[in-house]
Amino acid sequence: MEGKKVKKTAGIVAAVIVVVILLSALLGCFTVVEAGHTGVLLTFGSVSGKVLNEGLNFKVPYIQTVIQIDNRVQKAEVACSSASKDLQTVSSTVALNYRVRSTASADIYRNVGLDYENIIISPAIQECVKAVSARYTAEELITQRQTISDQMAELLSEKINPYGLDIDIFNIISLDFTDEFNAAIEAKQTAQQNALKAEQDLARIKVEAQQTIEQAQAEAEAYRLKSEQITPQMIAMEYIDKWDGHLPTVATGDTAMMFDLSQLMDEASQNGSAQSSPAPAAPAVTQERNAPSAETVTETEDEAVTE
Predict the structure, then answer these.
(1) CA torsion, points 45, 51, 54, 58, in degrees to nearest 10?
(2) In a 3-state reduction of DSSP, which class is residue 169?
(3) What is the domain count for the chain?
């Protein structure tokens, strides 16, 4: 009786084990590849040429295994040190967005493995940065940054594409130079700004001088035109407009003779009223034996002659 029970128990245990093995084998026939990944199928550790797509896939249990390769966009950031064409030390940081080509997942796993960033990408970035930086001076690295970035990306693409790696975006995050070079650049910029200011000041002075010349020429032309318009008639009219109606009472000549103009005016009025009367007597003329001095004549003219 006891022997039968033992055999029965052993049979049950064996049956359970077989069921477990069968279930495990059944479950091991399927594998799930995550989204954005591809599965590299290994048969007894050997890479087969078949690449499994994302989702549920079939495999031989205990014989085949699946290695998942990430085909999504990945980022690699590398710090680089290089020299420019004029032998300036350049410290730069480059960020690369890349992805593993899905059709090349088996090849990259077979030839490189899973650490392709450190094995392929980082050394390639270092080499490309050094090669392109050596073509340009330090100043050109700053002023032609986009062109240099495009050349680095093109050269890097040539290096990593054969491995099944594709570049999405290549960015130069930073370009740093030595303190001495930065000081030289700042001094150069200051000198250029001062030179530009001096040129602007000179141009302003020239414009102001030209304006002054043109203004003086315009004023001279205006005076010339006015002087051409002045005639004796205009002078006479101006004199008449300003005359107060009174004649000077004393006038002198070069002969040092003095005439009493008021007496002449009185006699002229008398002659006008008496037409039949004899001709008026000659005006009293006083001739000095000695001609008056220049001071006397001038003083007399100032006091007696009015406009």
Answers:
(1) -60
(2) strand
(3) 3
